[in-house]
Queue: 4 jobs
Job 1
Amino acid sequence: MILRRVAVISYGMTKVDKHWNKSLRSLFGEAALNAINKVKNPKIDAIIVGNMCASDLSDQNNIGAIVADELGLTPITAYRVEAACGSGGAALLTGFSLVSSGVYDVVMVGGVEKLTDNIGKMISFSLGKAADAEYELFYGATFASLNALLMNRYMYVYKTPREAFADFAVLMHKNGAKNPYAQLPFEINREIALNSEYIADPIRLYDCAPIGDGAAVIILCSLEEASKYTDSFVEIIGISGASDTINIASRDDLLSLKATVTAANNAYKMAKVTPKDIDVAEIHDTFTITAAISLEDLGFCERGKFDKFLYEGAFEPGGIVAINPSGGLKSRGHPVGATGVYQAAEITMQLLGEAGKMQIPNAEIGLTHNMGGVGSSVYVSIMKRVK
Amino acid sequence: MILRRVAVISYGMTKVDKHWNKSLRSLFGEAALNAINKVKNPKIDAIIVGNMCASDLSDQNNIGAIVADELGLTPITAYRVEAACGSGGAALLTGFSLVSSGVYDVVMVGGVEKLTDNIGKMISFSLGKAADAEYELFYGATFASLNALLMNRYMYVYKTPREAFADFAVLMHKNGAKNPYAQLPFEINREIALNSEYIADPIRLYDCAPIGDGAAVIILCSLEEASKYTDSFVEIIGISGASDTINIASRDDLLSLKATVTAANNAYKMAKVTPKDIDVAEIHDTFTITAAISLEDLGFCERGKFDKFLYEGAFEPGGIVAINPSGGLKSRGHPVGATGVYQAAEITMQLLGEAGKMQIPNAEIGLTHNMGGVGSSVYVSIMKRVK
């Protein structure tokens, strides 16, 4: 039972892009000031930062202290949380518990990642560290090739046409084209997706999220104090993490990610809602196959019917749930350790009615779904508009 | 105000050593089973892991999922926390808030590090990532050379004899010689310390903590439920983190670490105790100079009088406070991201009267002090024997 209810009072983000002229600290600072400037003088007690690759790609650990210093907020508590691509979601759970426990009153949860301007560093190898170094990477697996196994299996078991995955990418780019923060804000069509280059058969370029640089931030405080800082805010009514075996060979089933099912069920239960109650969701579509399986695991789609639901418009406004109005990882981009915080910022923006051309009308309850590894570390949160 | 009080109900650790025959996951598993076997069937809800270097030295991120899988505990929540050498302390704060908030009932807080068996990997470079990559490492600074600046300054300002630092190392090795988990469990004398090789003038080999492999674990639950699991436990009565500018050139004063002062004052206030009430402390003596400054910042010693207090026996049983009965980082060893959890395990062991030859008689209140970088990320906890 949660002892103190928690609100999101602000959010900020940078465009996901190739930010070759901005450092880790300046990217984070930009998103953080964006969030701080939206609220009335919040006295921030702690910063929790989601990040995966700074050690590999920027030779920097200890980035909690880095960003506290950048914002002139030392000596507040500041540290990093890491669960591969699920780092942002884990940071959100950490910030939630720091506020809910009464340890701190106002906590900034952020994520930052710089992936693109590293000459001579192996980004694919760095991202592969989300998988099992001893039992997967050692044998030559990459993150894309592991997901390719899932996609082959899905198409074999469910007889799903290859085109459905391409068409999901088309939908994501249609959404992302309206997002000023998106890395790839343009539309594509089925032919472009189907004919893009192979990454790991059957995964092609347009089945994959791009790599990008970016930072996102939200600010949390207790629900009862939220109106001190702002006139409009949302409440985190459900939140959970979950894990699974890191190497996929140890699993019973490749077509359901146990950690998503567990985290989602826990979050729904805590929030006292069902998948039907969710108006808008930002889900973790690293690859189009990840989206298909996740939509089923989250309860938005019948097992193996991803294509049918897609073509019925289930994932668009007016359907079952509006999926990834931001464009998702596919089009908004995937600044790895920041992605979970982007999702939380985007859902907050939707629930506050501030999403501009991306706005889903009358969105009252939203969900974030953030995943590390091939479903080995999953974080789900559910937010509700308060006023 | 803390909403639910938190107890430590168990602890476990491996010897700090060159564990060339054990992987990250098996080291963690050994410490964790050690802790689990001490209590009656705890249903663990989450694992928080402190670790700094696995990404660099074992090509592995996402180690929350790795250790949950190793223990057969998936799909529980599991993730990593990083604040350089302060990672263990940050993991403890995270676990504390997860229990105190009611998000989870039983949380395992652990730390694991493997540093020694990496052929061709640059351990010094990896550890340097605790300092500022852009403003310190780029210019050739190492972690030892930054601390050497502090030591030179201390001796210049306070006219402290060089021998006092050597004699602190002698005391740490005297303590560590009684610790079955210590990496360097042997005594030394002043001559050995003074004549050991230079690392970064004036820091010599015996001023430095060794690098080592190891894992430590504690198990937390709410105070009111602790007796369900065990007959003897301790309470965490104070806890805080704090940060400072990561590059030391930006600081007003090199002879006091603001983050230690802040974290300690917050923890004392929360615990409603003063430094005089502490019976035993495990402090972060990465270098002998770090010990001197930290003892002053924690309120155990007058400013600049480190040598005087040392020679009066202030830091030994019967003195002001028994410092590092484990031998500290100097002799027990410093498995970086695990060190803060070793300290918490050791203080728990002391307060429960289970420390064998290391036992400080009648220890009732203990303190841990864990530091990342040159004082840029500091975590202090205060524990009290309950029964």
Job 2
Amino acid sequence: MAEVVSIIGLNRIGLVKPHDDVSQLIIDAARADQIEFMNHDVIVVSQKIVSKADGRLVDISTIRPSNRAKSIAKRTNKDARVIELILRDSKEIIRADRVALVVRTRNGFVCLNAGLDKSNVQGQTVYARLPNNPDKSAAIIKAKIEKSTGKEVAVIIADTYSRPNRVGQVEYTIGLAGLEPIIDYRGQADIFGYCLHYKYVALADEIAAAAELVMGQGNEQIPAAIIRGLTRMQPTNSPGLSKKLLLGKKRDIFYSIT
Amino acid sequence: MAEVVSIIGLNRIGLVKPHDDVSQLIIDAARADQIEFMNHDVIVVSQKIVSKADGRLVDISTIRPSNRAKSIAKRTNKDARVIELILRDSKEIIRADRVALVVRTRNGFVCLNAGLDKSNVQGQTVYARLPNNPDKSAAIIKAKIEKSTGKEVAVIIADTYSRPNRVGQVEYTIGLAGLEPIIDYRGQADIFGYCLHYKYVALADEIAAAAELVMGQGNEQIPAAIIRGLTRMQPTNSPGLSKKLLLGKKRDIFYSIT
């Protein structure tokens, strides 16, 4: 029998407003399509709707930029108020020029503009910041869905990621609850009994990428998906799981690329 | 109605030997599980079985390392014959020390050890090199499956990729035929009519990552999967599609990271 994993798009969530309850929207959207949750379903939710629900929309017309933000705004040719918001969510600036503003966020992600994003946000001057604590947001959504459905699920919050070395963006995991983000094959035998030394798979990032095959990026309005039938996932109740996906400079073998 | 994409693992392919016909093995494995191919199925095949079928297994006991290989072997503390094979498949060495050997392959991929790999290869001294021309290998598999089944499919050859910035590996695309690897949303409107400036999605890499949710990495022996129900794919007959995923240094916004 073939092993099958299904990616089920939830397209009845509709527009999410500040302080909406994302878990309830997901439960209702599944019900509207007669989808029953099952144990070990992984629910992937787009960062954008979590940011909205978490009250992370900011109108930049309310922002007074610092002198540092003004200086970086000049260097990068961006709006100083936008830079101010990016700085508030960053702990390190990695590149700042007219080509790109690459930072390490307070949560440790190396990404463009600290994830600050204008797309699919209403209002000319309104931007969405990343959730303040994406693992916690994921844990809250997980707990509410479990309480309502009686099923044990996992939740991944996915965002769009521009990568080194490769053209185009992929979805990746910024927060998760309920599953180990990494599968460690090291020390296991391959099909010829050879010990695997390097296989250490970023399962959570692969799930986030898979979800986008139904979620899309434009006006599709499919901001969540259920990944069903994943036999390889390892449930866990540990908090702060996204930290396991963060590679500091010292351990990063690509860091000597210049 | 929910949009559903299915990832179907083909677990009856068995062991692949040098010069086996991968397309026939895939057709037979699908038939054994009573899976009929459908138009627009994307078939993801692991690099390892394509390398085997393409005759890219090499016994390093037959290799005489060059002086350059010997010198790099010393710096990296690796077998000079292994280095020799890596050099033959590389056009640029990016990092070579005891931590890692990162190269740009002749086909343009930035990766560890030019993709040379020992896992799931029989024989203590036998290694698998990447396919010589992965796009061409994908095109051949595609053509044979289409001829045999009468369906229009796409083929992606996926390999394991250690990434900058993030812990763990993900599958990515080293060769493909039959679908555009990138979806370009730039210039399209979002749900509020805001023009998307940056969305440029590496669909092929997301499909490769999704396939691993059933394929695994150890001794699961599921070296191929069918991705079915993908509404966003754009068929094409262009050759050399993997080039569209390659980001040279000049365009790589992360390249100033040091």
Job 3
Amino acid sequence: MHTYSHEYFMDQALQLANEAVDDGNHPFAALLVHNQEIILEAKNSIHTSKDITRHAELNLVSKASQLYTSTQLAEMILYTTTEPCAMCSGAIYWSGIKTIIYAASATHLDQIAGKFLACHSTQVFKNALNPPIVIGGILEHKAILQHQKYWLNL
Amino acid sequence: MHTYSHEYFMDQALQLANEAVDDGNHPFAALLVHNQEIILEAKNSIHTSKDITRHAELNLVSKASQLYTSTQLAEMILYTTTEPCAMCSGAIYWSGIKTIIYAASATHLDQIAGKFLACHSTQVFKNALNPPIVIGGILEHKAILQHQKYWLNL
């Protein structure tokens, strides 16, 4: 079996985040990968859903938890274009997903879009029982450029 | 206009949390109050929705943000039977709701149901821009008894 890189999946997630913008939403997207295969994808939909909870990762976890058990989800990888906020980190935790890979850090996003909720995935998972592994910085530069373009019109 | 107490609203929320158990879900419920009137209510529905994100407050914020602007929500009070978890605290923050009143603390819940995610509302709102006011301990004993009954069969 060919092994795809983290960059391969993140690039797909970044393309999906562009689609979210085309839809009229914010530039965020997430993928769920199992055995090197994308099995679910989700975009930010806060504007089109008129629902502020509809972040990409929340949408993904909501779908994933309806389809898979936490035992199954523990074997999957969640790719997201930006480090999950407190809401989405909590959702991912409750779902049982154990691996999170992101491109831009939430601190990068704060610097570009403005700092609101300083509590990000690191703080949410601190002292948690059996927390997920979190890896950041995959195609970080592409995600940062995407945010700069969207939030700062650069 | 008659002024209802925090206890009055919390008692209604606790009754709703009992209904959540009757439905087959966990004992949590939340209300949104504006000008002394309950305008929205939500129960935990993780089992009946087969969706782990369906905590009471997430359900409430999801509905509320579809109906009201963040400016309107800033004038409302969210009552919840237990201090919001990281996911729900994040959702409440993004909605613009500025007042949260709870009965049992998340630490109480951890002691009864088991400690999973140690990050609760205090940690989520720490260092946030313009965080909500959070008041705990309203009918705390009733909420603790409800949790003991549910999680420990006491």
Job 4
Amino acid sequence: MQSRYQIVIDVFGNDNGPDVAIKGANLILSNFPHVNVILIGDQDVISNKMKELGADENRYTIIDTKEEITNLDNIVEAFYKKENASILLGLKELKENENTIGMLTAGNSGALVMGSIKYLRTDDLKRPCVAAILPTEDGKFVCLVDVGATIDCSSHQLHDFALLGSDFMRHLFQIDSPRIGLLSNGSEETKGNKLTKETYPLLKEDERLNFVGNIEGNKALSGCCDVLVADGFSANQVLKVTEGTAKRIITDIVKYIKMNKREDMMPLVGHLMKTYDISSLGGGIVLGAKKISIKCRGSCNEEAFLNTGRMLINIAENRAMYDK
Amino acid sequence: MQSRYQIVIDVFGNDNGPDVAIKGANLILSNFPHVNVILIGDQDVISNKMKELGADENRYTIIDTKEEITNLDNIVEAFYKKENASILLGLKELKENENTIGMLTAGNSGALVMGSIKYLRTDDLKRPCVAAILPTEDGKFVCLVDVGATIDCSSHQLHDFALLGSDFMRHLFQIDSPRIGLLSNGSEETKGNKLTKETYPLLKEDERLNFVGNIEGNKALSGCCDVLVADGFSANQVLKVTEGTAKRIITDIVKYIKMNKREDMMPLVGHLMKTYDISSLGGGIVLGAKKISIKCRGSCNEEAFLNTGRMLINIAENRAMYDK
């Protein structure tokens, strides 16, 4: 796929306003000369900012809307009342235009998944989920599903998510038989809550899956599995507790450096901040839809749009999702 | 309470065998001259080890049993079939002997809670829970309930746990009106899974509680609440993901030091290992029972028995639980 194609960027949903996504779009244009962008949001705001940034007018178009589904909306209600919400217009564009390969959005993940079901559902009718691709201790990656779209899951949904994650890791990372783990409160088969105990046999008995059993939270990002399956609530804990702990330890090190007058150790802080900076990490990838959408965090910066844009282009060019 | 009294030490349940608890008991005897211990387990093993350690024979007694409830047991079944399991004999001793103030055990937490209901239930009939007292970013402590005994909770149980945690922090830490947080996947009232959405109004409307709302995982140990309420499954994620992340970052720092030949930075590693060493941290305290039991981790070392012993003695002497 070397011909010119485009990606959609939803400018709403960022905690720090639309400028973050617009600057991110401009970074993508600078870094990927063969990619154009479609920005969705308030036409005037986008147009002024893109001019200010000196973006090439031939490489972007704008879909004008002022409607947005926020985190305070009741999603089911908003889904029908806000038909012109940026996130839904973006998914519609993906459905209708073959050359539009995917979308980046910091908007509402529930709306993103519901919209993907409406506009981009695959033939096997699996429920889409959102995957986070996280760096593991051994220098590889683990695919954590579901990261926030489906908070209360059924065991059959978790089973679907395991299959979607397995497919994704096989295609994108060329892993023959991705190892599937189930997040639990103990490694033994007898451990777990009602949901994981129901899910365990479904994963174990499915011959398409290389199930390696229950994984405890301290091993979540160790590299002992390629796909880690959890409901949206628990996966959110894994992400946020990791982030909070990293931030706390880094703060602790800075205090230690000041107290001991060891400013020569500051490069270590830089190294750790780069390694554990969640705000510039890739976002959540919607699996189980005909095209790729990536959910950036509400608090993300413009670098995150560049990084997730790179990820999106990488996935599309690897045809990870197109081969099916 | 300055007169001589005793605490029970269950020698079973440790991943590294009974020696860990026996050595821990001996450390307690050395550090607390006004406390005696009752060891429960295999008489010969305990007796030989205590002699080898040179413990004063007048300061310990042994309750002989070879029965143990393990993590592989079905708890309900084991509870009736293994009446002489060390953990149950310990709770029985607490019930029958006024001078026995509490128990330390690395055994099965489910059995500990069920046994506490049978032998040490309080008059208000709340379900006991297990609390972890964890150091927060601001140098204070947060009481996390429930840490593992009740994996699938009802909203009414979480409400009870909030009340138990609030009482505990008021008595032990002399906090007038402990701030109660509910672990969730977002700070807004609309966020949460089915369980936390049902629990939210119960906590909000109870005038005995100073409810401060939903708390996200990255703020779990920030110090923004004094009691953090979660089901056993989610609380387990908070504990273990914190542990895993800390271990990973420390390993990362050691690698960085080696690669950059900066061995002069090793004291920082020592500092962090001391701050984030979960294996010597205090264990889980059973709240909502007439006497104190503390659950040590299966992988804990003898220092952990000393630390939890100190905590137990501290609680008893503060009469935190006796005032009720």
